[in-house]
Design a protein that fits this description.
mainly beta, 5-stranded mixed sheet, about 40% strand
Length: about 140
């Protein structure tokens, strides 16, 4: 599935808005292709193919969204997936967004509310592999 979603700070990621219910997510995206559990998450995680995980809080509202390639996330017009981490940091800085945490395997923005996983599994070197928007973490837009 080739999907491109725009990240609007901590308000919206593509068609998903902060705080919507699980029913609203399903109405917007259709039925999930599966669910799974994570040890640190009480509610089941909804999965759409290999490209999207939706995390809910116990009351059924959207908590976080994680997007994987082949989907793409744009933030202020900057592609965030499948790009070298230093290039991404530089492009987002030019767009006025500055990392609040950088390590070998992760980049964080807005005090961790937006996180990118970096993998070094390709011949091209490290690339960003997933974008997580965690509305519970907060941060500022």
């Amino acid at each position: 599935m080739s999907v491109t979603w725009e990240l609007d700070g901590l308000t919206r990621l593509g068609p998903l808005a902060r705080g919507v219910t699980a029913e609203e997510v399903v109405r917007c995206l259709g039925a999930p292709t599966g669910t799974f559990r994570k040890a640190t998450v009480v509610a089941p995680v909804l999965r759409w193919g290999t490209w999207l995980h939706v995390y809910l809080i116990d009351d059924g509202h959207l908590d976080a969204v994680e997007v994987f390639p082949p989907a793409q996330v744009l933030w202020r017009g900057v592609p965030m997936l499948n790009v070298p981490p230093q290039a991404l940091i530089s492009q987002l800085a030019q767009a006025g967004l500055h990392a609040t945490g950088v390590s070998e395997d992760a980049i964080q923005y807005l005090d961790g509310a937006v996180s990118l996983v970096v993998l070094d599994e390709s011949d091209a070197g490290p690339l960003t592999d997933s974008v997580m928007v965690d509305w519970a973490t907060g941060g500022s837009t």
